[in-house]
Design goal:
alpha+beta; 5-stranded antiparallel sheet; 8-stranded antiparallel sheet; 7 helices
């Protein structure tokens, strides 16, 4: 290995290590556990929680969560269409109580650029570009039950299960309570602060739909992947998957948008982007 190549590798490892270390701040953990969450209860076994942080991971943040308790009758689903629509409209059409935006897609054509399969039909496959940048996990729904899976090119090629719906995304952030390996993901995507969306499952099988607002200086600066993974771990997540973020980041509960979608560049609840897929509960 020549000297310039070695320096580049060492530099990337140093930045990656610092970004992960910064996500483990004791002050950040304390801020999360002591936050004043605004709670909205929807029926039995489902609630929304929102909190504004003056300083979390280096700046102001706004975090929204929908928590779905196990052993209730809430059924999960993955909805998709080539006709892109705001999440709130898609959720209303599916009679969803809670919903979060899904995975990555072609903004011009409306197709998924990650693996999407419904029962026997493979609708889309993961592009080489997405595998190189971030796709290391998937969400699978079968008979209304949701699971998070590790994902790779080899897994995708050999995936033959016929029942249920699968949507790949990534990166996988937590697996069995431990931080996942992001070394094969694009460094810039991992370390840059963005609005983020995630789904997590806790040790006691609660499902958490989580959004982090961003791109609104003074209100919410967004998070890197190590910071988001740390947040989810402090919240009790054992397995967690990053979803599409940026202007797609949207969280819906009982007819309302909980977070502040940034596609209109305003810190309000009406800046939804039209998207082709979502994960929902009804």
């Amino acid at each position: 290995m020549n000297k310039s190549r070695m320096f580049s590798v060492l530099f990337c490892l140093m930045v990656f290590g610092l970004s992960r270390a910064s996500a483990q701040s004791a002050a950040d953990s304390l801020a999360i556990v002591s936050a004043q969450w605004k709670v909205t209860t929807v029926g039995k076994g489902m609630k929304g929680m929102c909190a504004a942080f003056e300083r979390l991971y280096g700046g102001p943040q706004y975090v929204s969560i929908v928590e779905i308790e196990p052993r209730q009758k809430h059924r999960a689903g993955i909805s998709f269409s080539r006709e892109m629509k705001p999440l709130s409209k898609m959720a209303e059409e599916r009679k969803a109580v809670a919903a979060i935006n899904g995975s990555y897609y072609d903004m011009g054509k409306g197709n998924s650029v990650t693996f999407l399969k419904e029962d026997r039909s493979v609708i889309d496959t993961t592009t080489t570009h997405e595998f190189q940048i971030r796709v290391t996990g998937a969400v699978a729904v079968r008979k209304g039950k949701l699971r998070l899976l590790p994902w790779s090119r080899s897994i995708e090629r050999g995936y033959k299960k016929k029942v249920g719906t699968v949507l790949a995304s990534g990166p996988l952030m937590l697996r069995n309570g431990r931080y996942a390996d992001w070394s094969k993901c694009a460094l810039d995507f991992i370390t840059t602060k963005h609005p983020r969306s995630a789904i997590a499952v806790t040790k006691d099988k609660r499902v958490l739909l989580i959004t982090v607002d961003g791109r609104s200086w003074g209100n919410a600066i967004g998070m890197s992947i190590p910071e988001l993974a740390h947040l989810v771990k402090v919240l009790g997540g054992r397995t967690a998957l990053n979803l599409d973020g940026g202007g797609s980041t949207t969280l819906y509960l009982d007819g309302k948008i909980l977070n502040h979608p940034c596609d209109n560049r305003q810190f309000d609840h009406v800046g939804e982007r039209s998207i082709p897929n979502m994960i929902y509960f009804r």
